[in-house]
User: Which sequence fits this backbone?
């Protein structure tokens, strides 16, 4: 990596660039793109039926970090693309993501998400399942108008299929206490990794679909930060306070969901602890008791530290994948984003 | 309509044609097409993950009448198209339909469908929501490979959006005892009518997309039989025994769902009965009491007869829309299908 003063800063240079160190600064770097994406999100999800519109806007405006749109934009920029099509694709991936969250919340019976009531809390399960379906229908509409040789449809068809497969297998395996770390990593690469990777692939494709080297580099980058992102998500469920997280802590544990920290803890603890761990994952176990046991166990074996180290390894691999890309501010932002995915607090 | 001996029987003429009078005979007329469609359905929903595959095949093979595939094939044939693309489009519309049933079953907490256990009975809500999503992802895959100027994607994007809007509005209005017949008909034209109409539109498009007269005639036909179909579905929920129906009778009533017979009964009964009707739709009312009251009320006001008459009016309008189409066996089959939709017992 060359020193910053030799960087080609492109046409999105900002004064803040030299001190860019946090997610907010990445957001500032591409603020105009993100505003344009918000407009597209609202435009393409509007319904002439006021109740549908209200329910859909509730989840679309629910916000979140817009990580996937950011990845589309930065991947496009690092490959030298500056056009508006990145905004459309960014909106498409975000809607696929929001639809999956809406259905996740139904499945998890979640009451709050990002500090707001979930759809099923406000209007019931039925509306929530249907709003997820509606968002998928709107994604299809957005894809209809694309060029015949556009790879986006094939990539996203493949991605949405893999996301569902990952989710179905995770749901099916939820009772299997003996799931291996490798199996779990495969599941999360499908559930979470695929769409994050697709965001990078789609962005990279915009400039020059035939430069397979750049497309592949960014796809690998996306896969790795996807895995890092999910591992950190799993950790935050145990460590973060509910206010910052915008949802209930210990949600995964309360549902008896096996996640990365639990799977790791199981491999390092002794037989008695392992038995107890299996017991506390049973929803019938007293919740306070379960949480106290898991917190003590995690402390004893440094589970949080270990998991964050694994996540950082993935983030480092993600950054390494960018080596041959032009040394632009977009690349720096992608590198910093990889670290942010691990260091974030919510 | 000319006498049968003057009919141009096309290349799918069978000996049974002259006595064709039932749904089974229509099925026999296009048996080869329907077999080819079953192959496509299995092929395009296969997953390399055995559990996903098992869950998906459970619902896809669950069968049903394949009404929508039949409509694609007959609409294509009546316009003179005999190629294989009808099979792909037929499989696509059927998968959209199956996906919507899977999600409906989750919403309705249905335990059986078409005489088989529903997905959520076998593997839980989570798997059911996800299998519905998976089917949508596969539909996207099937559409990816189509020609750029193919209208199917735009038609289906529009259709799936309308289906969701219809469902969301129906869910939202479910507590509104004063919903008008016109409002309800609008909702069912979205929920049910759109996909049935789209099946006809897509079939008609295959032969000659620029002959808007034929496309429009078949779309109108589809809209009307779609409405007839849903009204009859609503009636069967009250009148059919569970064995024939393949699901629980009085399911709609037990959920407090306002359907066509109830909406009609409300407009003809006296004030006391209206008050009682509103009360029995409340899920807290004793079920046996609710059913007895509704059965007596329907008897008193001839609700079943009235609703079937309305459905037959729609079927007649559907048939009238076909007037200018060539007088082929496919047209006769479409006419008979319109009557079958009303006379069917399950």
Assistant:
């Amino acid at each position: 990596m060359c020193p910053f003063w030799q960087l080609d800063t492109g046409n999105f240079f900002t004064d803040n660039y030299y001190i860019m160190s946090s997610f907010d600064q990445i957001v500032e770097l591409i603020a105009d793109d993100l505003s344009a994406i918000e407009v597209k999100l609202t435009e393409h999800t509007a319904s002439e039926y006021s109740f549908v519109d209200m329910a859909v806007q509730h989840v679309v405006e629910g916000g979140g970090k817009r990580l996937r749109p950011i990845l589309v934009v930065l991947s496009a920029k690092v490959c030298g693309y500056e056009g508006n099509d990145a905004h459309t694709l960014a909106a498409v991936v975000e809607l696929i993501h929001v639809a999956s969250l809406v259905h996740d919340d139904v499945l998890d019976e979640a009451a709050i998400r990002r500090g707001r009531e979930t759809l099923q809390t406000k209007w019931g399960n039925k509306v929530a399942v249907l709003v997820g379906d509606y968002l998928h229908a709107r994604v299809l509409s957005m894809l209809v108008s694309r060029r015949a040789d556009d790879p986006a449809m094939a990539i996203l068809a493949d991605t949405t299929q893999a996301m569902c497969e990952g989710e179905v297998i995770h749901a099916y395996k939820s009772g299997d206490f003996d799931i291996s770390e490798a199996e779990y990593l495969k599941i999360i690469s499908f559930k979470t990794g695929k769409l994050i990777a697709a965001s990078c692939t789609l962005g990279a494709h915009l400039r020059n679909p035939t430069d397979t080297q750049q497309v592949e580099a960014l796809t690998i980058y996306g896969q790795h930060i996807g895995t890092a992102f999910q591992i950190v998500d799993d950790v935050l469920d145990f460590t973060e306070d509910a206010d910052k997280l915008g949802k209930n802590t210990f949600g995964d544990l309360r549902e008896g969901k096996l996640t990365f920290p639990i799977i790791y803890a199981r491999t390092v603890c002794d037989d008695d602890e392992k038995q107890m761990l299996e017991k506390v994952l049973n929803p019938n176990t007293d919740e306070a008791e379960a949480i106290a046991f898991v917190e003590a166990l995690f402390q004893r074996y440094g589970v949080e530290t270990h998991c964050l180290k694994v996540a950082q390894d993935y983030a480092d691999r993600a950054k390494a994948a960018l080596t041959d890309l032009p040394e632009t501010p977009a690349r720096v932002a992608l590198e910093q984003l990889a670290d942010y995915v691990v260091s974030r607090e919510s």
The beta strands of chain A are 112-113, 116-117. Residues 212-239 of chain A form the longest helix (28 residues).
